[in-house]
Specification:
4-stranded antiparallel sheet; alpha+beta; elongated; Outer Surface Protein A, domain 3
Length: about 180
């Protein structure tokens, strides 16, 4: 049994859900998302008394991996509902002398110690914002926001001796000790 899968998803009033065969569409104030659903999963949409709706997810039959799919699909649909209402956001921090970032025409330009600036174009639904040395990636699709943040971080990962590079805000980088001078005896 899946503990996560058993929990129903409460759908706010300003969100519409449409279920067609193996596809679910969630439309809200921030946008619209689609997701394919496994044929082993059953979705039931119920109206609650206060105008909200409740989506229940259950497996159609018990197979070898039914509880994993059950919890996965519940988490995917919950993230879709949260994304179209609130959105998702990741923050990256640039550390290093001369390292900086700027946004021009939906392109993120990174000057991070290479001979040329690294440019990353924002996919549809993703927005970049730069404030001093903090890069904010925001959008309605949680997977895409995380993937773009990881792609930006991979351009210059924090190095272990001085900590220079791009890191997530709040990420702790363990600094190694450099070569130690040995005393002459």
């Amino acid at each position: 049994m899946s503990r996560i899968g058993k929990q129903p998803i409460i759908i706010p009033e300003n969100v519409e859900i449409k279920i067609d065969n193996n596809q679910i569409t969630v439309k809200g104030p921030k946008g619209k998302l689609n997701q394919l659903i496994s044929s082993q999963i059953n979705l039931v949409l119920k109206d609650l008394s206060d105008g909200q709706k409740e989506l229940s997810i259950s497996p159609k039959k018990e197979s070898k991996n039914y509880s994993a799919l059950w919890g996965l699909h519940r988490a995917l649909i919950f993230n879709m509902v949260k994304g179209v209402t609130d959105g998702f956001e990741k923050e990256l921090e640039i550390q290093g002398v001369g390292y900086r970032a700027s946004v021009q025409n939906n392109k993120l330009s990174l000057n991070i110690g290479f001979s040329h600036p690294v440019e990353i174009e924002a996919p549809q639904g993703i927005e970049f914002n730069v404030n001093k040395n903090i890069i904010t990636i925001s959008g309605i699709n949680k997977q895409l926001v995380g993937q773009i943040a990881a792609k930006i971080r991979d351009q210059r990962k924090p190095e272990p001796y001085k900590g220079k590079g791009i890191r997530y805000v709040g990420e702790i980088v363990k600094i190694k000790a450099g070569k130690k001078a040995t005393g002459t005896e």
